[in-house]
Amino acid sequence: MRFKWLIACLLVSVVCSAQSKPRWVSLNQCLDYLLVDWAPDQLVGVTGLDETVISASRSAHFGRLERILRLKPDRVFATEYNNPKLIQLLKKYTHVEVLPQPQNLEQYREWIQQLSQYTALASHARAHQLRLEASLRAAQHVTQDVVILMPNQFSWGRSSWADELIRAMHWNNLAAPLGNNLVSLTLEEVIYLDPDRFILEGFSQANYALANQWLYHPLLQQRLSEVPTQQIPARLASCPVVFANQYLQAIQGTE
Fold it and tell me: What positions does the domain Fe/B12 periplasmic-binding occupy (predicted)?
């Protein structure tokens, strides 16, 4: 009888422990990736935008209020770009943590600090920052002139995350004088800038796509064959702050 009583107590303890485990939900695909890696035991809900992060213990809510509430989250992680109406509705039922989208290294450090408030994330956040800082220091020895080329003749100018990383390496972003954030480039401007390195970001494998068309101009193809060229994988380009160190290594060609 006493043995059965001990077993019953143990089962109750296990059930209570499982019930007390924090339940987190992500409202952003980049946060899906981050929390799956950093806090897999706490994460019970993801956006559903990438099927690879869905599992038996992790459901897709597709941004629907009813699905999110059905997961009974203790905390919902969002970004400043999520639907404000959804965030306001969720705040009536649970705590919502709205994270910024860093555009510079100062905001990145604030982002890391915000994530470090949670025990499950603190060590990962610190390691994330240390890896990025080490990579930045290692890349500062040789100054280079670079240009990032993207579909539809866009590039990253001043006040963008890419420009911040490039300047932190003591490299020179040749598109920075053209404007802030996304800037438009003509083929003539690309040739005239004459960089030491081209960086391709966001191009799909569909060569026929109109957004990619300018990449295949014979003159630009010739320049790309003559100048060192790096490709930033789509997954890194979609979440450059979450994958900050890998993104930086892709710019350098060491990823």
Answer: 64-196
